[in-house]
From TrEMBL, chain A:
It holds the Pfam family UbiD_N. InterPro entries: UbiD, UbiD-like_C, UbiD-like_N. This is 3-polyprenyl-4-hydroxybenzoate decarboxylase and related decarboxylase-like protein. GO terms for biological process: cinnamic acid catabolic process; ferulate metabolic process. GO terms for molecular function: carboxy-lyase activity. The lineage of its organism: Archaea, Methanobacteriati, Methanobacteriota, Stenosarchaea group, Halobacteria. Keywords: Plasmid. One of its GO terms (cellular component) is cytoplasm. Residues 8-96 form the 3-octaprenyl-4-hydroxybenzoate carboxy-lyase-like N-terminal domain. Residues 298-421 form the 3-octaprenyl-4-hydroxybenzoate carboxy-lyase-like C-terminal domain. The keyword Thylakoid does not apply.
UniProtKB/TrEMBL annotation, chain B:
The lineage of its organism: Archaea, Methanobacteriati, Methanobacteriota, Stenosarchaea group, Halobacteria. GO terms for cellular component: cytoplasm. Residues 338-453 form the 3-octaprenyl-4-hydroxybenzoate carboxy-lyase-like C-terminal domain. This is Carboxylyase-related protein. Transmembrane segments: none annotated.
């Protein structure tokens, strides 16, 4: 099982984690540094020296902007956290998430891994604060049980007072359980429970068996608190009682998490009774409202996996090579790469995606040669391969408004756009322009000749000095 | 210090550790371009091939780094290497605002006259013109300045049109009607059945090379703008076989004429779109009348196609470093309130992003229509307008603006009606649509488009440039924690002071 601690150890080993050892105050400054780190594609940032109990860490499940460099794999930290190995490709990760497999949870221990520390002073934890100075809660889970079934749901919120958390949760969770249930809020859990919680409650259907979904994604270890099944690797566990809050008293002004775009939300207060922590607890958090944050990465992958699963089951064949909601587009843009089976297939494909997701209203259709690891090249095809007059297709303005874009927030209907950057299947083969790549631009003889003289040409030294791998050999 | 020759520029590159000399024999037949493409893709040094038959080749000498594509353009202008893109743009704009007249030097003082061949001695095949991609129609010179005069005025246009070598005396030149020099040829010289005198200047000093890709207004003296960029007069020298003057510091000058109603095959060629462009077409014939050159000349070339996606080449870097500032200046001169006009970083030419303070729809409509009627727009299909605090060169920021702020219902304009001229190099056209062999135009029209991806104030948080001090402190904490700013595109030097 890849706990947060194990995940961070691996990131440290591969140079993808930096420790901030100088004193950074949790009030404002930690979130500010985290914002800069995510915005500028920095490694995972661990704050070792803040005045509170926890050690905040940002970017744990995020990743770099793929435009920034060919080496960037924005999903890599998540695939690592799911223990899928360093060579896991984007498509393999999506296929893994798309399976929605459930597994029994065998590894239930009776002992709570985190130790009860006090009777519930949220402020003393030293969670990073929002701009108004209240502790931020992100990348955590609400744990609640009904009729012997425990579910885990995504949360976003803040401390309301020293012993009250005010959280946004999927409305369907509140409807599913009683509104005054005993609950736990867990922070610092591994990737599988976080992803499973999104799959269970934000995908247009209610799937309460989230712990089993999580176990289908990766090994998870759980323990029992009260009657609830709780991830035992949680770094911080806050137990208390949940109360629904009337919508009239919740005036949201702060940035929301990405998952909140995907479902109706409700506001609840958790009256904290006890706080349990591990020794030197690590709490992943994300500076909401910034680009490239962890919540965007997680939601992009979860929504993509849903679409991949549904589209490929829909056709009876599997022409779709890959789908991506690039994190750079903040859930407002969808790319699909597919074999175009027949003329007009791209129209069907784009509209299928629109019907399966409410998040975006722009779809880019690429041919099956497109590479999911090269976003820059994929977007280039939108500009050079799609005919501006014929291949940018706008719908009649009768479509419901998409959730991610910031226009038409009044829910008025509007248009959708898909861009067809594939070769027209009606074209003769001779019309198709071959791509210019290292492999296609030079004959094997030329490449072999160069490889034989690699050293004489000084390329070994040159590329080695710059940290370049010489896979071309 | 301003750089006065290609050699001096390469020396500066070498001093910076950015030049890779290859003294082993390398063939012009794909080998030089294969090495160059590899180094382009790996963001490595510029290769100088010192042992290629009778001359030297340099692959993509002005290619910038993938993170800072304007970096080596700045080097050629003697600008500091650590300028932010905004500082670089403003520096180039200031220089373009202050043109300097050229001076004429004697043949004896012109390096490009060290060797002179005219008459029967002329042989293009004496030089190792590279065969760049397997599948190309032939060997090319594709990084040069074509000097061509207007027959009705004193105006001389400098431009960059690739030429495919056919034999010792002739080549075909890619002249696409709609651009300045091709228009002179098709609509003046050829209509009068007159040959067009030209000089192809290979390996001219950086300021000249940069000027030849800029959108210098018709009728203006390009040499003056090159002087402005250089901050010194450019030295010109008369040709041997026609009345043109050429930059004296060029490595090699091919003098000749483009003949009326004569055509030769051109292409296919692995083009700037990143695709092998076809079909083979007929283009105007260039006949050589003289060649002058420096001893042991250095011939620059560009591996087109590698400027797409995550790599750079000279074309894509010059688009950002030269055309971008020039276009920004052009729009400001026309009275538009433009923060910056810059090409989509990984897509040379087809798409430009414009950041602007004024975002009301009628203003953007007027600006777009102004742009689409200028001659430089033949290659550009799209403009995307973004808020003033969005960096047009940051593709993430622009894609985010497109995704979140461009309403398919209201913000995409001029799609769906094919009314505008198009360059026949576009790969979305069928071969039938692409070619008119007589005038180098496309048979079809296209639909240029502009996209309003400005926020209109709706739900958008400003980019954090307004809070520079806090941002700077946060960045310093990260730097002290070990973030390598140069490798992680962390802090754009100079940006924090704006």
């Amino acid at each position: 099982m890849t706990t947060v601690r194990r995940h961070l150890d691996r990131l440290r080993e591969t140079g993808d984690l930096i420790s901030v050892t100088e004193r950074v105050h949790w009030e404002g400054a930690v979130a500010e540094v985290a914002s800069e780190a995510t915005r500028h594609n920095c490694p995972v940032t661990l704050f070792e020296n803040t005045s509170g109990t926890v050690r905040p860490v940002s970017g744990v499940y995020g990743g770099a902007d793929q435009f920034a460099s060919a080496d960037q794999r924005p999903w890599q930290r998540i695939s690592q956290a799911l223990d899928l190995g360093p060579e896991c490709s984007y498509t393999e990760l999506i296929e893994h998430l798309a399976r929605w497999e459930t597994s029994d949870i065998d590894d239930v221990t009776d002992e709570s891994a985190a130790t009860v520390r006090d009777s519930g002073d949220i402020y003393s934890l030293g969670l990073p604060t929002t701009s108004d100075g209240t502790p931020l809660v992100s990348l955590g889970l609400l744990v609640v049980e009904r009729d012997g079934v425990t579910t885990w749901a995504p949360i976003r919120g803040r401390a309301q007072r020293s012993q009250t958390l005010r959280l946004s949760v999927p409305e369907s969770v509140v409807e599913w359980c009683t509104s005054s249930a005993d609950v736990s809020v867990v922070l610092g859990v591994s990737a599988a429970p976080l992803i499973a919680a999104l799959q269970g409650w934000t995908q247009g259907q209610t799937t309460p068996s989230v712990p089993n979904l999580a176990a289908g994604l990766a090994d998870v270890s759980v323990t029992t608190v009260g009657s609830r099944t709780v991830p035992s690797d949680a770094e911080v566990r806050i137990d208390g009682r949940m109360n629904a809050v009337e919508s009239s008293v919740t005036e949201e002004t702060e940035p929301r998490a990405a998952w909140e775009l995907t479902c109706e939300t409700a506001t609840v207060d958790v009256n904290v009774e006890t706080v349990a922590v591990r020794e030197d607890p690590l709490v992943p958090f994300t500076p909401l409202g910034e680009p490239l944050t962890d919540d965007i990465h997680l939601m992009c992958l979860v929504e993509t996996a849903k679409l991949f699963r549904r589209v490929n089951n829909y056709w009876g064949v599997s022409p779709v090579e890959w789908i991506q909601l690039p994190v750079e587009g903040r859930l407002g843009f969808c790319i699909v790469s597919s074999e175009i089976l027949y003329a007009g297939f791209e129209w069907q494909l784009a509209n299928t995606l629109f019907s399966f997701s409410d998040l975006f209203d722009k779809v880019l259709v690429l041919d099956e040669q497109a590479d999911p690891t090269n976003l820059a090249r994929a977007i280039d095809d939108m500009w050079v391969k799609a005919h501006p007059a014929n291949d940018w297709i706008f719908s009649e303005p009768n479509a419901s408004s998409a959730a991610a874009p910031l226009y038409r927030s009044d829910d008025e209907n509007g248009s959708r756009l898909y861009i067809n950057a594939t070769w027209d299947p009606r074209w003769d083969e001779e019309y198709i322009a071959p791509r210019v790549t290292f492999e296609t631009a030079f004959s094997e003889n030329v490449l072999e000749s160069l490889i034989e003289r690699w050293e004489e040409l000084g390329l070994d030294d040159l590329l080695d000095e710059r940290g370049v791998n010489t896979d071309h050999e | 210090m301003t750089t006065s020759s290609l050699r001096q520029y390469l020396q500066t590159l070498e001093t910076n550790g950015d030049l890779h000399r290859i003294s082993e024999p390398v063939s012009w037949n794909l080998e030089a371009s294969a090495v160059t493409m590899l180094l382009n893709e790996e963001d490595s040094a510029v290769p100088l091939f010192e042992n290629v038959d009778s001359a030297r080749l340099v692959g993509d000498p002005y290619r910038g780094t993938q993170r800072r594509p304007w970096e080596r353009i700045a080097l050629g202008l003697g600008l500091p290497s650590d300028l932010s893109y905004r500082e670089f743009y403003e520096a180039v704009i200031e220089r373009l605002k202050n043109p300097i007249e050229p001076v004429t030097v004697s043949t004896d003082d012109a390096p490009c006259k060290e060797e002179i061949q005219t008459g029967d001695d002329v042989d293009l095949l004496d030089f190792p013109w590279p065969y760049i991609h397997a599948g190309d129609g032939g060997r090319y010179s594709n990084l040069h300045t074509l000097v061509a005069p207007d027959p009705d005025s004193e105006w001389v246009d400098w431009s960059n049109h690739r030429t495919m070598i056919h034999d010792g005396e002739t080549s075909s030149v890619l002249l696409l009607a709609g651009e300045q020099t091709p228009n002179l040829y098709y609509y003046k010289y050829e209509k009068r059945d007159e040959p067009m005198p030209v000089a192809i200047t290979v390996g001219a000093e950086p300021a000249v090379q940069y000027t030849s890709v800029m959108w210098i207004p018709t009728g203006r003296n390009e040499a003056e703008y090159a002087g402005g960029l250089k901050q010194e007069p450019v030295e010109l020298v008369p040709c041997e076989t026609n009345d043109l003057s050429v930059p004296a510091t060029a490595e090699l000058v091919i003098e000749g004429e483009i003949l009326p109603n004569e055509r030769r095959d051109e292409g296919p060629f692995g083009d700037y779109f990143g695709y092998m462009h076809g079909p083979r077409r007929s283009m105007p014939l260039f006949r050589v009348t003289g060649i002058t050159h420096q001893t042991d000349p250095i011939l620059p070339f560009c591996v087109e196609g590698t400027g797409v996606g995550h790599s750079e080449n000279t074309t894509s870097s010059m688009e950002i470093g030269c055309v971008g500032p020039d276009a920004t200046l052009g729009l400001r001169t026309a009275g538009f309130d433009v923060e910056c006009c810059a090409p989509w970083k990984s897509t040379p030419r087809t798409i430009y992003a414009i950041s602007t303070e004024k975002t009301n729809p009628s203003y953007l409509h007027d600006m777009a229509n102004f742009i689409f009627t200028t001659w430089g727009m033949l290659h550009v299909d799209f403009f995307i307008f973004v808020d003033a605090d969005v960096n047009p060169l940051n593709q993430r920021e622009v894609l985010e603006a497109l995704a979140l702020h461009a309403d398919p219902d209201a913000d995409f304009h001029q799609f769906g009606v094919e009314t505008m001229p198009k360059v026949p190099l576009n790969i979305y056209q069928t071969p039938t649509e692409k070619g008119d062999i007589q005038t180098g135009t496309s048979k079809a029209k296209t639909a240029k488009a502009y996209i309003d991806a400005t926020s209109d104030g709706a739900g958008r948080e400003a980019q954090p440039t307004h809070d520079i001090e806090r941002r700077y402190r946060a960045q310093k904490i990260l730097e002290r924690a070990g973030v390598e700013s140069s490798e992680l595109s962390f802090v754009d030097p100079g940006e924090a002071t704006q």
